[in-house]
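lol so apparently i was supposed to do this last week
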Amino acid sequence: MVLDEHIDHTGTSDHEKDMVDACRSQLTTNEMKALLMNVLNGAIDTTTTTMVWTMSEIIKNPRVMQKLQEEIRRCVGRKSRVEESDVANMTYLKLVVKEALRLHSTVPFLLTRECVKHCQIGGYDIFPGTRVLINAWGIGRDPKVWTESASIFNPERLENLELDRSEMIPFGGGRRACPAASVATQIVEYTIANLFYSFDWQLPSGMKNEELDMEEVGSLIVVRKTPLSLVPVKHDWQD
Ligand code: HEM
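anyway here it is w/ protoporphyrin IX containing FE bound
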């Protein structure tokens, strides 16, 4: 990623600098609690928001839901619930979650960077001290990379696709990238697998899939404008 070469990943907000300074000296119990609460809040919001967007996209696309449930139930067989080891074989599930992350970068502008060295990006001069926002949300929907159908949820587009590190960056990049990217993806995959294994999901009161509102709000974290409301129906195995 071009930006990585020029932009300092150590500095973000003043609040965060205070936290880093506190770590460098000695953390008091209260500072440690505050730091942990910050990490936990960030971790929970991003992960649950990603799950909600993934479920929304699956429900909106019945073809995807059917294919996904066939894969999950084939891989798991008849059990009380999905086990973590089952998920390794679910190739379509991994594409579904990745495609949801492409379309819904929950942290749309990542952490703010501060430029440490004069550089040019896209013909623009960026001077030292400039605060830079990276539009991860826009990168995941760039038609130059993802074609005219960029805004359409289509997990198959990612099949056998060799991605450059900068073509979708829902977990950021460089030294300040999300340290939990791998585990967070696994948590989302595992939860979605369990939810779609045990239940068939319906929209409330005869609403049609295409009517599901996908409007987004927020700037730090992008969430659904209207809460997702679904009806779980226990799956009938019929055998
Ligand atoms: C799907 C879920 C998640 C998403 C989409 C996500 C996304 C991100 C993004 C975009 C950043 C900023 C990266 C950058 O600016 O380059 C970040 C930072 C961070 N994330 Fe996550 N995250 C997720 C889950 C988690 C979880 C579960 C944890 C902890 C258990 C976590 C801990 C952190 C921490 C500590 C940072 C700050 C890293 C730093 O400042 O150096 N994240 N995350």
